[in-house]
Design brief:
With about 525 residues, the chain is of the alpha/beta class. Helix content is about 35%, strand content about 20%. The chain is built from 15 helices and 20 strands. The N and C termini lie far apart (about 70 Å).
């Protein structure tokens, strides 16, 4: 087929796709609202352990500082091996009977097992890698682990303080206090740690593999995370969207365009432009405004909201503040002016298609009139439950081929499915009970619009999974990342001591709930 004919059919396809690109409608069949306060507050008291936590706060802060001072930037392999060894050594020091470093094709993982002889077993997920740092921090060295005076109180300001070294070491501090006072734990613990979360967890399955069958026999999995705002409000997310991350590339070839290198721009009258071809291919994937995916079947694959999930959304919508969230993001409106429940549903149940980067040819100062021979874009698509990565890639490929863009290459870089845990799972209920003990009303969401490889727990291991807990931090992946250590008067979020006590309560609540069943 001549390229001019392909271009014509592509234009026709784009017009048709834009005209027929429609979002699904999810009618709600219930107005019921999930009430997290209906769960009785955890009533257990562990005063001796609490007192030990209070007495050891200086030492516990030092443990957090020791973790964040160890560089572990996965993107550049900076300090990764040393951080893996530090984590493994800490587990041994705590008394974990089995600790294993797991080599993978990428960065190593760490497995640990503490056998308390208890009837309940919890898997604790950890990531020991962090993002690179920028030069615009308010402190000189983001790996110095400094305590900084902040408007919210005393904070630990460092890369990894919030995401995720701070809350993870706080969990181990709580374990250390429980062992020091009680001599054992109320539950058996597995720790599974990876050093590639910030790279999309390409080898996390290999980390789990040596103990996969053992881990599947556990009762649930938990990821220590700070989910309180500075005011003390908390949102407990019960899952995540999946994701595919990929490159699209157009090059010159037999179909047209320069094949070896860029050529003079004056030849555009005779030579096809891969850069223009790429943007037309990308444009065909959505409606003309870029806001509705035009790939046939993309929306239909998504699983509609169940009544239980509708009740969670109804509760979220009852007190949502769209304007506040928009201000925090620096945007003035949502697409189509949506607010309330409709905005929540679109954010959680609709797949996205987003350009992360686009490059070709000359982008420097001044002028250089060339016709580039190659153009590349990075894209991501967030996948709600029901839309699987392999199916998404197949639909994108089929759509491009149908439009005559069969020469445009799809280069998958990462992909994994969504994960979700029902709100009535015992682990979720135990976590809500602990929030209620501390007077924190948890806003419970069916999942987060972001992505993480938590399917490894909900699908590979078939376990309920909870990520979150008391505590406040800010600045993940950005400058001035911090974890609140000692709140100023009037600040509603928990400080380090209260965070650690809540972890003690969670382990006991999980054990006591199992005995009650």
């Amino acid at each position: 087929m001549r390229l001019s004919t392909i271009a014509l059919s592509s234009a026709v396809l784009l017009a048709i796709a834009s005209a027929h690109a429609e979002r699904p409608v999810y009618p709600f069949t219930t107005e019921a609202r999930f009430d997290s306060t209906a769960r009785p507050a955890y009533a257990g008291r562990h005063d001796a352990v609490y007192a030990h936590i209070d007495a050891q706060q200086d030492a516990h802060v030092a443990q957090l500082q020791r973790w964040v001072r160890q560089r572990s930037i996965s993107a550049t392999d900076d300090g990764i091996a040393a951080m893996a060894d530090l984590l493994a050594d800490d587990l041994r020091s705590l008394g974990f009977q089995e600790v294993q470093r797991v080599e993978t094709p990428g960065h190593p993982g760490v497995l640990g097992h503490y056998d308390a002889g208890a009837p309940v077993t919890l898997v604790v997920y950890m990531m020991y890698d962090v993002q690179p740092v920028e030069p615009n921090w308010r402190i000189a060295d983001p790996f110095a682990g400094e305590l900084v005076d902040h408007e919210l109180g005393t904070v630990l300001m460092a890369r990894g303080a919030m995401n995720q070294k701070g809350p993870q070491r706080a969990f181990l501090n709580a374990v250390a206090s429980m062992l020091a006072v009680e001599g054992t734990l109320p539950v058996n613990l597995y720790v599974v740690a990876e050093g590639e979360e910030e790279l999309g967890s390409p080898n996390f399955g290999a980390v789990l593999a040596p103990w996969r069958d053992r881990l599947r026999a556990a009762d649930g999995a938990f990821f220590p995370m700070l989910v309180q705002s500075a005011t003390g409000d908390a949102q407990l997310n019960l899952g995540v969207k999946g994701i595919i991350y990929f490159e699209l590339e157009a090059r010159g070839g037999a179909h047209g365009g320069p094949t070896r290198a860029e050529i003079h721009g004056s030849f555009k009258s005779l030579v096809d432009a891969p850069a223009l071809r790429l943007v037309q291919a990308i444009a065909s994937l959505t409606s003309a405004d870029g806001n509705t995916v035009a790939i046939p079947g993309y929306y239909e694959a998504v699983t509609p909201p169940t009544e239980a999930e509708q009740a969670l959304v109804n509760a979220l919508a009852a007190d949502v503040d769209d304007a506040a969230l928009q201000r925090s993001l620096g945007v003035e409106r949502w697409i189509d002016g949506l607010t309330g429940r409709e905005a929540i549903v679109r954010n959680l149940w609709e797949p996205t298609l987003n350009i992360d980067g686009l490059w070709s040819g000359y982008t420097g100062a001044g002028m250089k009139t060339i016709l580039p021979h190659v153009a590349t874009a990075k894209l991501d698509s967030r996948l709600p439950p029901g839309l699987e990565p392999d199916a998404a890639y197949a639909m994108i490929r089929a759509h491009l081929d149908a439009g005559g863009f069969d020469d445009v290459v799809i280069r998958p870089l990462s992909g994994y499915p969504a994960a979700a845990t029902p709100a009535d799972a015992p682990l979720v209920q135990a976590a809500i009970g602990v929030f209620n003990k501390y007077g924190v009303k948890a806003r419970v969401a069916p999942w987060l619009a972001g992505s993480a490889p938590f399917y490894q727990f909900t699908r590979t291991l078939d376990l309920p999974f909870v990520f979150g807990g008391l505590g406040h931090g800010w600045g993940a992946h950005g400058p001035d990342e911090y974890m609140l250590i000692r709140p100023a008067e009037g600040v509603g979020a928990a400080g380090l001591a209260e965070v650690e006590k809540s972890y003690v309560d969670l382990l006991h609540a999980l054990a006591e709930g199992a005995r009650a069943r």
